[in-house]
Amino acid sequence: MLKSLKRLVLSLFICALCAVLGFVLYRHRVDLADYFKARSYVPSTEMAELRDALDLTEKGTRIFNASTPLLDSRDDFNRDCNSSDPGIAVYGCYYLDTIYVYNIDSAELAGIRESTTAHELLHAVWARLSGIDKNRLVPLLESVYAEHKTALDKTLETYDESERLDELYVRIGTQIKTLPAELESHYAEIFSDQDKIVAFYDTYITPFNTYSDRIAALGAEMETLKSDIEAKTAAYESASATFGTEVAEFNSCAATVGCFSSQAAFNSRRAELVATQASLDSTYSDLSALIDVYNQKVDEYNSNILNLDLLQNLANSNGKTESIKE
User: Fold this and answer.
1) Residue 326 domain-assigned?
2) Domain that holds residue 223
3) Are residues 175 and 301 both part of a single domain?
4) Tens digits of per-residue pLDDT, 26-51?
5) SS3 100
6) Which pLDDT tens digit goes with each residue over 49-83?
7) 56 phi and psi angles, rounded to 5 deg
8) Looking at the 3D structure of the chain, how many domains does it have?
9) Whose CA is closest to 114, among 54, 182, 37?
10) 199 and 229 share a domain?
């Protein structure tokens, strides 16, 4: 009887131990799969440099290596990421558990490869989070979104609702510097210095924003100048027409005996017309200078549009590749 009881206790203990072990293995099955997959990954020299530049934690490095990132040339990238639309610039993608990064090697876009690699790495991280972990992060992500809605909506509006949280998680982690403590701690599990990751984004996005902001500012200035020029042109043309009539009347009167009561009256009226002519000449000169300023702004506006277009093409695997014009 005692032996049977001992066997029963031992069996229950073994079952309990197996259950615990099974639960632990289930909970960490992704980590175990990543561990073995990461061990076989051998990055290219450039990708190893990008990985080092991100200053990843041990967990971040494991997920990075397990995602077997590839730095793709234009044609390979378009194939791997199914990118074919010239109107949509795709810098990277996370597809079938693999990170693909378009190899944008351009001085004008320093930081874009690092930022893109970090971006795609966070997609890999999100894919590994449990439903419980995602639900815990959602209110934190939404609070940051509410604070930075204008900036984040520029890109989030292009994604389906089913992709929104994934994309929000990734963009907040790579683009927003000041975060709630709990969210900051979460990203710190992947990046040793998240500020450094945001700096990569800020570096490459700055020229885009600089051109865009200047284009917007010039557009507003040109509209104001155009209205001013149109109003002043209308006033000048009206004054010129009136002056022309007055000159004709003066010449007619001068040719008519007795029209002017005296030489003094003639001289006085002539002096008035000369002064009016001088005023009109000055107005025309000012108007011409204003038009010159407008034309200079048009040239600058067009130059900024051209450079923004060239910059977008440099970052677009389906765009033309040219250098920025000075």
Assistant:
1) no
2) 207-314
3) no
4) 344 456 778 888 889 999 999 999 99
5) strand
6) 999 999 999 999 999 999 999 999 999 999 999 99
7) -80, 155
8) 2
9) 54
10) no
